[in-house]
C-alpha cells in the first residue's frame, strides 16, 4: 500500500464519516451554520452532509478521484466560516470546549492541502 493510496482511503473515510454524522446527528452542525445564510440551518446541515458524502464517493472512485478531491478541497474551504462562527460562539464556554473550537481553525489548511495532494496523485 502506498502513502498515496493510504491518504486517499483516509480522506474517503473522513469525508464519509463527517457526511454520515451530519445526517445521523444534525443538531450540533445546525448550531454552527452562519445566520446570514438563507433558509433553515437544518437544510444547510443536510446539504453539507450530502456534499461530504458525494465528495467521499467521488474520491473513492478512480475515474472521478481528481475532481472529487478538488471538490473536497473547495468544500473544506467553504465550511471554514462555520468553524469561525463556532469558535466565536464558544468563546465563553469552558476551556476544553473553547480549546476544541479554536483548535479546529488551524487544521482547515492542512485538510485542504491533503485533498489537493490526493487530487495531484490521482491525475
How many domains comprise the coordinates? Answer: 1
CA-based gyration radius: 15 Å
Helical run tally = 7
Average pLDDT works out at 92
Uncertain stretches of 5 or more adjacent residues: none
The end-to-end distance, rounded to whole angstroms, is 18 Å
Protein name: DoxX family protein
Organism: Actinomadura napierensis
3D structure, described in words:
By secondary structure, the protein is mostly helical. It has one domain (3-122). Helix content is 77%, strand content 0%. It has 7 helices and no strands. The chain starts with a helix and ends with a helix.
Quick synopsis:
The protein is mainly α and 123 residues long. The protein has helices at residues 3-24, 27-30, 41-60, 65-78, 80-89, 95-104, 108-122. The chain contains seven helices and no strands.
Secondary structure layout plus pairing:
Layout: H1 3-24, H2 27-30, H3 41-60, H4 65-78, H5 80-89, H6 95-104, H7 108-122
Helix pairs in contact: 1-3, 1-7, 3-4, 4-7, 5-6
Amino acid at each position: 500500500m502506498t502513502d498515496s493510496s493510504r491518504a486517499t482511503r483516509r480522506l474517503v473515510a473522513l469525508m464519509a464519516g463527517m457526511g454520515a454524522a451530519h445526517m445521523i446527528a444534525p443538531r450540533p452542525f445546525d448550531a454552527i451554520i452562519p445566520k446570514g445564510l438563507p433558509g433553515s440551518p437544518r437544510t444547510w446541515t443536510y446539504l453539507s452532509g450530502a456534499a461530504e458524502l458525494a465528495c467521499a464517493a467521488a474520491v473513492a472512485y478512480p475515474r472521478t478521484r481528481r475532481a472529487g478531491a478538488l471538490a473536497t478541497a473547495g468544500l473544506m474551504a467553504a465550511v471554514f466560516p462555520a468553524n469561525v462562527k463556532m469558535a466565536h460562539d464558544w468563546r465563553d464556554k469552558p476551556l476544553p470546549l473553547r480549546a476544541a473550537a479554536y483548535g479546529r481553525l488551524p487544521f482547515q489548511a492542512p485538510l485542504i492541502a491533503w485533498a489537493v495532494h490526493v487530487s495531484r496523485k490521482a491525475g
